[in-house]
Amino acid sequence: MLPSSNFSKMKAEIITIGDEILIGQIVDTNSAWIADQFNMNGIEIYQITSVHDDHEHILEALKNAEQKVDLVILTGGLGPTKDDITKNTLCEYFNTKLVVHEPTFQHIKKRFTKLKIDMNRLNRDQALVPEMCIVLPNKEGTAPGIWLEKNDTIFISVPGVPFEMKYLIENEVFPRLRNSGKTKAIYHKTVLTQGLPESMLADKLEKWEDALPDNVKLAYLPSPMAVRLRLSATGKDKALLEKLVESEIDKLKKIIPQNIYGYNNETLAEVIGRILVKNGNTLAVAESCTGGLISHLITSVPGSSKFYNGSVTSYSNQVKEKILGVNHTSLNEFGAVSKQVAIEMASGVRTALNADFALATTGIAGPDGGTDEKPVGTIWIAVATREKAIAKKFVFGNNRERNILRSAQTALQMLRKVILKEE
What we know:
The protein is an alpha/beta fold and 423 residues long. It is built from 16 helices and 17 strands. The two termini are 41 Å apart.
């Protein structure tokens, strides 16, 4: 992490070079990773640009970036083939020439000797770098990183191969930026909420949000699984920023105490698993409309075997009756999508798999199958314990994929509240 003593703001642009990105052949994961790392280190990403393997296009992107930002990160175009033109284009932009960097040449030669592969001219050419650059040694590959400066803007070119790019950013770029004096301290924390849509959440938090300190920014990050609230504080001292953000989160907890289930990258399944293991409890699941998604989310948690007994995906009424013990009369009288059947599913799987808690879902995910009484998106979720069983009805919408995701996450949140005796 960059030093907290640096205060002035550094703005950066990422330029990705390669036709394969622009035609959709590969997904640009490099920019996402770089943006995340730079943001965590107090560097603002002003813009992300993708350009063709084209000399003029790259020159235009370099010129535009220099006028707007303090730091330019280029990825791609440093390989040994003819379409890798980044170095030659940089030489033109900086009015310099390519020269052999002997340490890089020896590094490449050593790698090929170790692999028992003969070097050719194209491999040797990877040791060519702009004469005026600072060379960033690449221990993970053959193409080195390149550091150039012009008119107070830093230009850094790294390979497009993700693990090589990451190595250079972490081990060469960030250490050199530490002494630049252009970065600031930053602290992020993300609050994970469930149960309130973004608009309702924003309405509840309006006064709290309006009262946030000037150097604390709030971002709403909604998805079918949750609404994440990311707080970002900037300033001189990271320790003080952390205290400031935690203080604001303490206020937030008093406003929406039952909707917050975790922080940062935690999943609801992880949170539930931690509570169950701590209490020595077990869980079983019966799924109909969610088709096994809840079970997948739970078993994605390392160590889930400590608390998870298993599940039954009871898509048909026959399975509901024969495996879970759902009453035939309940199915006939109320239908599979009903409070009665949801409760009987949860109670049945809890008994069958001898668990302390059980979760069940039954509903109409869509896009068809709905009625006026039970439209598409109608979901019943039940939680059973050794003492009782409760069920709740939800109506989510007409998109099948979102309905399944929201049903699974809502079911886990309902279970969490029951375990914590909040429901």
